[in-house]
Amino acid sequence: xxxxxxxxxxxxxxxxxxxxxxxxxxxxxxxxxxxxxxxxxxxxxxxxxxxxxxxxxxxxxxxxxxxxxxxxxxxxxxxxxxxxxxxxxxxxxxxxxxxxxxxxxxxxxxxxxxxxxxx
Length: 119
Known about the structure:
Elements: E1 4-7, E2 10-13, E3 18-24, E4 33-39, E5 46-51, E6 58-60, E7 68-73, E8 78-83, E9 92-100, E10 103-104, E11 113-118
Parallel strand pairs: 2-11
Antiparallel strand pairs: 1-3, 3-8, 4-5, 4-9, 5-6, 7-8, 9-10, 9-11
């Protein structure tokens, strides 16, 4: 099974940008469609964005469309999430996971990375 480690979170003000990274172990990264999810206390984890294995197609939640961009580097076994025009409602812990459609494949998650957007 692929091990996942997210990084790149931090504290920014409204309108700022961050770039998240998710490094995956194992040799099978390129065979998975990959997604980003986020979770705030008391709420279910929600889908943010996904990218298919060959990078030809990407998908976004309506709440982030036009502001976030997902990409991947299969040679580095890494998936990225460029987040621009951040809003306080983007504050959450962000996770990555292989996906089928908009659903995570693995039941286990990495540590996540905290994103905090101050108003």
